[in-house]
What does this fold into?
Amino acid sequence: MAAAGMAALLLAVLFIIFVDLRPRIGADFFFGSNDPELVGAQRIGEIFPADEFVILSAASDDIHNPGYGRAIQKLTDRLGNLPGITRVLSIASGPESLAAAMDSPFWRPLLISRDEQATLIIVFLDERQAVSLVPVIEQMASQSEAAGGIGRLSMSGMPYIAEQIRKNLVRDMKLFSTLALVIFAGLLWVVFRSPVVALGGAVSGISAIFATLLALHFMGQPIGILTANLAIIVFVLTQSQIIYLTNNWLRTDVSDGIARMRDAVRRTAYPAFWCGVTTFLGFMSLILVPAEPLRQLGAGGMVGVLSALGVTFLIYPAFLLYVRRPPVPPRQEREKKSRVGVLSRGGSVLLVGLVVLLAVGLPFLNTDPGLLAYFKKGGDIERGLARIDENGGSSPLQLVVSRKDGERLDTAQSYEQLWTLHHDLARHDQVGTVLSLPALMAEANNHPLAFLLPWREIVTLLSLEANQNVASSFLDPDRTQALYLLRMKEQGRDRPRAEVMQELEGVVSSAGFHLDLSGGVYMLQGRLSALVSKSLVGGVISLLGLFFLISFLLTRKGLVAGVMTLTAAIIPAITLGYYGTFRIPIDIISAPAVTVSVGLAVDALIHLVLAIRRSSKKGGAPARSIASALREQGTGIVASSGIITLGFLIFSASGFPPTIRFGLGIIMGAVIAAVASLTLFPYLLRMTQKFTGKA
It folds into this structure.
């Protein structure tokens, strides 16, 4: 006990000294800087340098009111004086006046909402200071609202969205990690009627988390958008094996304390090892995905599996030496066991019925949710984003085009073609706002003397330092590539972003141009959606395939391995069918719940089938071996499922929808895993015995 306590204390001290728990979530949080999916976006940044930006929508019943204009001017000046703000565009700092902006083909879509009930303030940030600047901008916006003159101020832009996701993750990580610890410990106390078991489970779970995060720190991996929930995953993996170990300890016939503990470890270690191998390889498959958050989860999950196994068998067993096993009279014990794990044909029929019923939802999985799906519907953040989205779109998209014939773009003919493309893009039902070189040139043509200069000379003038090199934001130095900046709609999208991107590429081609590069959050989310979908389906299939191989190694019987795999496959089939049927978004944060759920089923089935093997070696008939194994492992399976289900119910209180969906996935998986292991698996196993006459 002392050695285990010292090991746990050492992990805690090292964790406090070295680990930084603040999630690092930048504006490109969907991908890492080295991901191939970002190559196009990075290339656009090299050709058309631009800062990150935040959009503020300042509402008013009358945007022409002088008081509104003064309030906008004051806020614009305050924002412009902040260190790290490179430029601020508003009706007080861009166009000559609000009236001029209303008539401008460039300023109107940029700064004025479609319903003319708000104007926009675009704040350009130094990327290195974006994380620290967003809270300051939020505070200034609140102060401006309170001062009057401006109605409600809403915010958007990827630095802002990334900061809101970060704050939600930090809040949930603090709140639910603490609550999960208390609830899991309390449930262990209730189930096993021992405060020592509860204390051991809590200490072991925390130690596994500390060990995992320490290892990731020394591997150079920071806390990211997915690893923020890794602590809960590791805690669950640890508690699952602890419950099986405690259950085996309760059921061993050895009387001596140390010998009983060793016998329980011996019974549990072998199946726990193979459970760990399956889950480890499942996480390993994620490190090949070209998206840094998924790779981070894969690496973290691999380390977490090792930490969970290590802590379960190196720290927790010491606590069992101080647990008093409640005496149970043999007859009462037999009666108790007879009520545990009874095979139920009804349970099997229920599960198969759910698979058939929910299978219709599988083709409708939504792995490409909008940005608004990351925030609570009807909440302040969601309403603000929706307001901006309704008036010009909220998700940036960059398109770099060139003429198919390779001609320069600073000619009158190119100007007309570019204008045609501008209007064609603006007419697309998913496009909110379009900013482009021809819109900028149309603004320049409003100058009284513009008619004296050819189009090429106007481009040259707008490329001068005196005019802030404004043309260089839309035209490359060789004048053969032009940039279109689009704000895409997030609400009401009824098809994947990848499909919308194909449609936009068709629009570009029809106008006589070639789409050279695409970038921006809209495009990256579309690519991420495809990767999440691929990793979700591929991960489940590969995990089930690995499970079949491991099951075959354990049983040496292909039919039994097939039955185990089929039982495990019930979990993702029902869970994903439910998600698709009820159109529940599967975002990058909640998607890993499906893999974790399969891991829970793997644990139950491996522990159960090895118990069947132990019983059959004693010479029992196949049916009696199954019944004996159910009595031996049934309590552990039910306890594990029940504790995990009740523990993850706390996630329903989160104000962050991805966390809620993550918890929902775990709960469904835990319940289905228990029911399938205790009903469907024994039922199918008995059916195979009728056909083969073998166990």
Observations:
- Residues 331-343, 445-469 have pLDDT under 50 and may be disordered.
